[in-house]
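Ticket #4471: complex job returned nothing on first submit. Input attached below:
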Amino acid sequence: MGPYLLRRLLSVPPVLLGIATLTFLALHAIPGDLAAVLLELEGRPEEVARLREALGLHRPLAVRYLEWLGRLVRADLGNSTALGEPVVRLLAARLPVTISLALTSMAIALSLGVSLGILAAGRQGSFLDLLLLAGSQVGLAIPSFLLGTLLLLAFAAAVPAFPLQGYVPFVHSPLEWARHLALPALTLGLDRAAVLIRIVRASVLEELHQDYVRTAYGKGLPEAAILRRHVLPNALIPVLTVAGMQLGYLFGGALVVEQVFGLPGLGRLAVQGIYARDAAVVEGAVLTLALLLVLLNLAVDLLYAALDPRITYET
Amino acid sequence: MMGLLQGRNLPLMVGSLLVCGITASVLLASWLTSYDPTAVDPPRALQPPSSHHPLGTDRLGRDVLSRVLHGGRVSLLAGGAAVAVGAGIGVPVGVACGYWGGKADLVVMRLVDGLMAFPALLLALLTVSALGPGHLQAIAAVGIVLIPVFARFSRAQTIVVRNREFVLAARALGGSALSILHTHILPHLTGPLLVQLTAAFSGAVLAEASLSYLGLGAQPPTPSWGGMLQEARDVLFVAPWLAVGPGAALFLTVLGSNLLGDGLRDLLDPHAPRTTHL
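Support reply: We reran it on our side without changes. The output follows.
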């Protein structure tokens, strides 16, 4: 466990550096002049030159990169050109929204995916199994923004049980927080549950055909006990890795779902940043989302190593 | 009914039917509807479905059916082009890395890992923010997301085939690397690659629709399914029918392409665990 833990922890800084470099290159090394873009068409050449100097764009890319990296390490992400506020403050305000959305949807995806996947595997070939597989196929094909729109139509318009847009922080009113988050989290959660159902089902079925399960039946153990005590602990370990991989999709999905439900999260901030050509905001939102993902993946891997002792021998 | 379908590759049948049907109706858009998808007619704005306008009209009085069919060209073309970009760059890189290995392979694969550490849509978003919103930019963004996927996939497949006896024999007989790649390795990649292409296509159509929904893909007045759903969202409670056409088209395309991929996998790789018949 010790060496694995160390290796896994040491793998985090290079990944973060890679992500930061890629983000920098995408936003700073592209053809086209940021100063000219900011001044749009009205900018006279001397004005563009002055702004280039003010923004430090006249210096070599490598120098700018190192300076940028230095500021990044000190958590200084600069100011938003469109909103005039420090990017860090903007991110701090939006982060809780995205984390709330990601965690609640993951909880929905896991609880639905695992329970329905086990149910389908337990009744392989039955009508219920077929129905659940068909349902997951539909879930895989329906884009989250369409599902979100349908949920809005059903539960915010036809039956006005949930608000149409917006967000209320948990500390202000837990009930309102839950009401505002219910439909977006359900949208993202159902989307991911569709993937998990299939994986849990396949994983449980694979374990059910192992020799130790036959032995357990041979010993005369009741089916429920075999499933609970022998099959599930083994079958759910790979599910954990897949659930970790779903986090990436979840953050990607959050970009769109925040837009559908008007949630003031990081994804919405990033999209607004792109509209406003506000590079500092886009950079901040992208880096924060990527950092969150890397840390969550690390947590999943460590949990995986703790649950499955074999992992230490493989590394 | 169940007996009749027993043993047949149902996903392949349903998937091909859906994909062919949608592609045909999108290609024949000009024959299927007489309305111009961008012709504005304000007095007829937001009309519910009728015999003249089977899917109703939008906020500017444009015929929704015509926009769904013409928008399909944009969406399907974007999906296909993005897959072409991703596979066109990713497959040669992956095959070369897998066949020759060495330091270049190490470097390229670290880069691929780095790209894959990004959530796909976030990487696409970053690309669009670098290139600016637009249809071609969205295609490039989705294509770039697909490059590491194809590179890693074809590298893994090449490594498996590279060490098989017939390749070792061809090498011992003095075959050049290019001829071995061409005659022995690439034919073995075709089947799995076809499955991967189908899966990537549905993902690309969805990703392009997501970018268009966010206003970062095809720009108005060009119709695209994602963009139309965004427009429908603004008038959802006044004209909910606007979401039906583009939503159903997008859903059926992705469903068809997913089923086709599952069916092809069953057909081309009989040793792989069979996907269920739904």
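DSSP finds 14 helices and no strands in chain A. Closing as resolved unless it happens again.
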